Model the fold of this input.
Amino acid sequence: MKKNQTSVTEFILAGFSFSPALQSFLFVFFLLVYIITVMGNLLIIVVIGTDRTLHVPMYLFLFVLSFSESCYSLVIIPKMLMDLLTKSKTISFVGCAAQMFFFLGLGGTNCFILTIMGFDRYLAISKPLQYPVLMNSQVILWLVAFSWAAGFLISVVETALIFRLSYCGPKTINHFFCHMRSVVRLACTDESITEVVVSSVSIVGLSSSFLLIILTYVFILSTILRISSTEGWQKAFSTCTSHLIVVIMHYGFAAVVYLRPSASDTLDNDTLISIPYTIITPLLSPVIFTLRNKEIKLAVRKAISKNTCPSNM
Done:
């Protein structure tokens, strides 16, 4: 460990400095993506919150997921948009730690909520008669609380491990946010063990939740195969399609970020590869769930008609 060196009080986010000519375009593009993401998730939150016919487990979990996705975007995108417009792309040491903590916590929460949504679909398809008892309001509350607690417990461990290291320079993070692998490599002390531990925690968290979802869908498929009617098959598949698409997209992008070789980490690689996971996923999730769900589309139409009818009377 190097002594007599000044501790870093702020970091510089390199961001999209590898393409300065595109920064104005990127600002407009990411701003539009962010607006659509927030509006899409808020639409789901408002519609599910106000329409009592949607107060069932599947949509209540979607309500929580949309709220979590909105917070997830809020942690990263506004700061990134600000940095695209300014020359000073600094973030304080404490601010960096806070951003990483909420980013990892909300990302973990999303993974666990998706896992619980898969388990909910399994119960609805395989045990329809016992489903209202098995998935009652108290169980829903405990499952949601577990998702948030587990996500942020992992985040506390990873963030504490990273920021217990000594940082005395350099202080330029090769990313557009405080990504854990980019930050830990700026430590003055030997960070190799910390990097391995933090990466292992992330991989175990991602893979365990993904394997649980796969196991859930194996049971769902075995149940569907025992259904004799074609209509029953279609109904069962329709309740799972949106969730399965979001799971593949979410975990596919996450795997590219967390499972790729560390030797491939460069400013442009890290930045471009992280865009789908941090920016595109929160946009596509509400779009997929809304466009592929008849009940939500019907609820949206009802909400719009309620607001337009009085003006026509």
Remarks:
- The chain has one domain: 10-312.
- Strands lie at 10-13, 90-92, 172-173.
- The two ends are 76 Å apart (CA to CA).
